[in-house]
Amino acid sequence: MNTKGLEDFFVDNWKAVAGAIAAVVVLLAGYGIYSESQRSREAKATDALYEAQKTARTLAEQKKFPEADAALSKVGEEYSGTRAAFEAAIQSGDLFMDAGTYPEAVKRYDQAAKAANDPFSKILARYNLGIAKESAGQFQEAVAAYDDALNTKGSDFLKPEILMAQARCYEALNQAPKALGIYNQVQKDFASNTYYSGAAAGFAAKLAGAPVNAQ
Question: Could you tell me the fold of the domain covering 42-117?
Answer without folding.
Answer: 1.25.40
